Amino acid sequence: MKLSRKVSPVIFIVFAICVILTNPTNSSGAAYDPADFTTLIPTQTVSVQSLKGKAVFNCERLTGFPGRPRLPLQSVSFILPEDADLKTVKVVLSNVKDEILSGYWDVDPAGPYLIGDNNEIWPTGIKYAHGKDTSVYSSNAYFPANYYGRVTAGKARKFIVANVEISPYRFNPVTRKLRRITSASLTVSFVKDSTYTPPKYRKTFSSPEIKRLYSLKEHTVNLKKMDKAKFEFYFPTYDATNLQLIIQAPKLPPLFEATLLKRTYVILSTNYIVSQARVSLPGGGITNGSVQLVPFMKSKQARLFDVTLVTEDKRYKVVNGTLTLMANEGWGGGFGQPAAENIRAWLTADVGGKPRWDAMEIEYLLLIGCGDPTQGTLPMKSTYPMFEINPEGASFHNLNLPTDYYYAELTSDWISPVSGRCGVLNISSDYDFDLQPEISVARIPVNLYGCDVMGLDSILLKIMAYTDEKQINAAWRKNVLLPIKPLSYNDNSWEFGERIKDLCTAQGFGYYRIYDTISEYNAYLTTLFNQWENGEITKQQYDALIADYKNFLTTFPEVPWNSNPANWLTVSQHFGIPYDTGLTNAPADDDPYNDDSSVTAFNELIFRQAWANDTYGLVIWKTHGLETKAMYIYDKANDNNPAYPQPDNNHPAIIFMDSCLNSYPYNTYNMISLGSSMLLKGAAVGTVGATQVSLGGENLEIADTWAEYVIKEELSIADARDFTITRLLDLNDDYNFLVFNPYGDPSVGLFSYEPR
Fold first, then answer.
1. Are 379 and 407 in contact (CB under 8 A)?
2. In whole angstroms, how far apart are CA 601 and each of 591, 605, 647?
3. Can you tell me the distance from the alpha carbon of 113 to that of 6, in angstroms, rounded to the nearest whole number?
4. Interatomic CA distance for residues 387 and 67, integer angstroms
5. What is the rounded distance in angstroms from the CA atom of residue 440 to the CA atom of residue 717?
6. What is the pLDDT of residues 403-455, one digit of tens each?
7. Which of 1.10.10, 3.30.70, 2.60.40, 1.25.40 would CATH assign to domain 3-198?
8. From CA 663, how far away is CA 691, in angstroms rounded?
9. pLDDT tens, 605-614?
10. DSSP H helical segments within 89-242, as ranges?
């Protein structure tokens, strides 16, 4: 199943800002210079035109709360001095100049959440009529009330990052007028944290700090403007000798090659798995357990990682090629949620006056064990991000969303003071906690409640072979397979695939698209009839729209099923809905997903044949999903079916499973999820999948942003997830940040080669 939302994509445009500080000083007592933060907004504009009376904005993405006007939203991000008190950050917009646009406008409301094809879910406590929030659409006032909206501040390790929402347009539904900002000054103020203690000595940047700064340089308006002296003035903790190297670097991986920093890699596992792994020791005896964990650690050491292995009560390193006990202390152990709390407590425990993740300068954390939140040996954390949105007791109710991100974001309290729930997101207006990551986390699931160490061995062997492959032999990885099924009659998802296709073209990657087609005709007629019946359009308008649509059906050109649907944007803008171009020469689906007489472009056999006919380093699918299948793309049950080609075990792909439930971690009846199975069976070297029902809809996409970081920036699967969150953090719908979790080695990406 796929929980989707019928809205257009969200725009994120980073504005320059004007920051005026409220008498803050650094540790030396000198005042910060407001000129370092001052500029005007907007530096970019979003134009609008009328299309049959409706406002069409020339931005890539729109956003909106269900039932409220769907308008452009822009995010302003900036970095604050390290002594800033997060709780005191405020914003004032001054010297505002705006204009009321001529003419009359209509702005459509943002759509509801959808589960499956077209089952609508609306937030509770709001009165709706015809899909509109009546409190907004019946009010003679501009929405939103101000040009700036939500203000958040949090820590990315020790770097304080503030985000401000800017709405360049405001809409009055009664007068049907649009108001647009033309210029203003954005003022950010804060006071110094009274608990801040300046450091005695400066430290150089660690590898995870370099990673955070590299991420923030593109998404904060002031970091790039700082030289060494200015940065050290704002951040007395650091020796900023390498700052310009970080700011000017075109990609992150060369930074680590240039600096040759120690990079800390921590593995958390269980006594059972590690005691079995000790068979690799001389005289280890005979066992049917794992023999690959120690070689895996050696492989990481060869890549300049300082590797620590921690079990419930012991800590190990590999010294001179031998697994060596360093201390009789571990992360605490347990099962289910008590174990989850023990893992986080170990990561945040005080070590020499610093939390452990900081004292050890942990960059990567790999969890090896069973992730079942109820009984797992290395469980995911149960969170409750949408409990105020979905009605209690609904089958799709996400009261228990498992995530490993609880071990990545370590500087804030995940427990809401309002509800007492863990991981409540801003979507419910309950509590905003800091989602900026401190470390990069992934897991290798060990099935059978953590006992399948032979399966673990096969995964570790595959990862080591993948990372040992020579660059000259790895050209096959620069090839992307894009199977895409419609989420509903309102969302054929072509535009999602086309964004990734354009990225591949720009980066010299090959690609193969398999798009499905879906009939829009009956759905569009139904929509028009409902509008006429509800008095939203006249009979004359109804007849004219139907005639226009039928004329378009007969004149719009058809395209082959596997070629570029280049005109989707034209169609969408013309009618305000996605449109089926009548794809031709498409093979019939053996079990049509949409029972509306549509022609489907592929079934599972078509997808598997395409994968068997070529090698792909990256597979990104988009469809509805269940625990063990991506609908009509991949069904785990067919892994042993000779009628279905099997993926090449020697060329495993990184897979983004943009569908619901594919990485479901519960071990009910020893069920192995699709995400775990793809690692185990050889199809994948790493996956990113949903542990529960995921949110779909074009303003909720994270897969295309993640793909940009994997392809263009050459990042690993876990780093790409972290960078995606940093980039999209302030755009409202951050539920998917928790639901999509990486499986595999967190440091592995398309560009993971032998040590260079």
1. no
2. 12, 11, 21
3. 7
4. 19
5. 9
6. 999 999 999 889 888 778 888 776 555 556 788 899 999 999 998 888 888 89
7. 2.60.40
8. 5
9. 878 888 988 8
10. 134-137, 207-217, 228-234
